[in-house]
Amino acid sequence: MPISALECVHANAPSVEGRDHPRRSSALSWWIIAAATLLFLIIPLLLHDPYYLHIFILVFLFAYLGTAWSLVGMAGQLSLGHAAFLGIGGYTSTLLFMEWGVTPWLGMWMGAILSAVVGILIGYPTFRLRGPYFALTTIAFAEILRIYVENTEVGPFGIPLRAGMGLLVPLKGSAPALFQFDSKEPYYYLSFLMMCMAVGLSFLINRTRFGFYLAAIRADQDAAESLGINSTRFKLLAMTVSCLLAALGGTFYAQYFRYINPERAMGLGISIEIALVGIVGGWQTVLGPTIGSVLLSPLSELVRAYLGGTYAGLHLIFYGLVLMVVVLFLPNGIFGPLQMAIRRLEAKIRKSDEKG
Amino acid sequence: MIQLLASAAVTGLMLGGLYGALAVGLSLIFGIIRVINFAHGAFLMLSMYASFWLWYFFHINPYLSILLVVPLFFLFGYAVQQLVIRPMFVRERALVVEPLGVLLLTAGLDLVLSNLALLFFKSDYRAVISPLGDSTLRLGFLDLNLPRFLLFLLSFAITGGLYWILNHTEVGVAIRSVGQNREAAALCGVNVYRIYSLTFGLGTAVLAMVGAAMTPFYYINPSMGSALGVKSFIVVVLGGLGSVPGALLGGLILGVVESVTAQFVPATTSVIFSFLLFIIVMLWRPKGLMGMLEA
């Protein structure tokens, strides 16, 4: 009997006690994914309101960032400083564009390389720390970067970091070659494509030997090492891919909002926002962060847009409550229960088919 | 130059007393319950607001408000442990829970509390205005700000008092026994979950005492908690996780280091420096400085 790929993904997630997943092909999940993809592709044809498109772009962007973030999570390490890599990506491409006119399409890769290098430099010493100690240390690294940029007008080699003022991306109107578009649709499809590629990459990683190594490390690092898995090496590899992707997302962030500053691109708030979509969805699953973003991003954006003016910080209260509820009642995220529900639905359909 | 450094060192000691006093409760809670309370800074902010409103509406002197704020925050801490954190222990049917989950749980609580404060108290900076706030004490060539000096003395009193409670009262001994060996304590008839709640209340009450004593000289703002919360984490790590006297020592060291380096480099660089200190201690001396002394 063929085992569907999605089953494989879930099979190497840490198994929850007493919940044995039957290795049945869950065709329904694939139909749902295909239908959602098709729906997302045709939405801009039906919906022209820029604000609604903006909400979808945020959903895709945070799904993308959450998926990138979850790659480190798959190695069993929870980072709360991923905004640093987003910031490095955004700042690098924007500075290259402002100073030398390098198109962000090229600059984003320079940012990604720089971010990956920084990720390795941070990861190498800190991956020996586990659980909350790793999380706190990543916060410290990200805060160092934020405070440094926030207080530095001119960095080393005369780089004009412009301190807390942030960087304003020079406006060029409709200039696809410079990563600038005058309508929401190109950003919509670009962010959608980025999300699909990140999820696809995460899916592929989970099917390879590398993915199995990561699963072994997060389940029991000592046992994995005793079997000859070099845990530091594979964690670093996961970190490299994660930082690379996060930095590319940072360039998108800068080009889409046309403005970045240290607080918005490197602050603890955005680190938590990225981690939250992953935690809510299921931070050790392929589709978890995407589902988390679909659930969270529109709600938080609506709260921010309609109530943020009169009640500042309301969306953060919402985030905090969601985080607490998820940690208390759904410690492995919403993905597991959702998959169980789909399975049950599928069984029901099958039964009614047999009857009919 | 020497005079400048000496004055910086004394200022640093005052600041260090504050940091130490802030971290004592956090360290106690971590040592006994193994919970990293990310909302520690938010608790401090709330206690300062409590003291501020008591002064604003009822003209109660901040030092006098300690008498009201301390029991109030003992109950608050007790309730947080009972209602928010204990469900995790119950779910996992364990005496120690996976620390990452609790960190996230309290991070959520931190977001809720600081933004509720923003919602109700607005982002204005507030301060208790009293002649005491500006009065100084002259010691040789040094001018000491009186409320800061009082807090410095209080930090030793708090640490000493807590040390006494832990060593010479029945509850204190029970708390320490739980910290040393949960199962054995439970077998001896100690209600571990109750001790957890008491400890959380005690740690929060101590924090509220510091908060009240800070109001005469520290501006209050809903987002002030995060900066001081981070400082408390650094201090706890410096002093050795879970060690009460270590927290005070760690605070004094951080205060002096910050204040002296601020003489040579811009203040923001010295903040970066304290984060680096945190990372370095985390990586190379995870048991903290007290751990080093014991070894």
Q: Mind explaining what this structure looks like?
A:
The complex is a heterodimer of chains A (356) and B (295). Chain A is 72% helix and 1% strand. Chain A has 356 residues and is mainly α. Chain A has a domain at 33-170 and 177-268. Chain A has a two-stranded antiparallel ribbon. Chain B is built from 13 helices and two strands. Chain B has a two-stranded antiparallel sheet. In chain B, strand 1 and strand 2 form a beta hairpin. Chain B starts with a helix and ends with a helix. With 295 residues, chain B is an all-alpha fold. Chain B has one domain (2-231).
- The tally of domains of chain B stands at 1
Total strands of chain A: the figure is 2
Elements of chain A, N to C (H/E) = HHHHHHEHHHHEHHHHH
| Shape verdict of chain B | globular
Q: What is the residue-averaged pLDDT of chain A? A: 86
The total of helices of chain B stands at 13
- The secondary structure category of chain A is mainly alpha
Helix-strand category of chain B: mainly alpha
Largest sheet of chain A: 2 strands, antiparallel
Strand content of chain B: under 5%
Helices of chain A, by number, come to 15
How do the strands of the widest beta sheet of chain B line up side by side?
A: 1-2
Tell me the span between the first and last alpha carbons of chain B. 37 Å
- Largest interface, C-beta closer than 8 angstroms, per-chain residues: A-B, 38 and 41 residues
Please state the CA-atom Rg of chain B, rounded to the nearest Å: 19 Å
Percent range for β-strand residues of chain A: under 5%
Spatial separation of the terminal alpha carbons of chain A: 25 Å
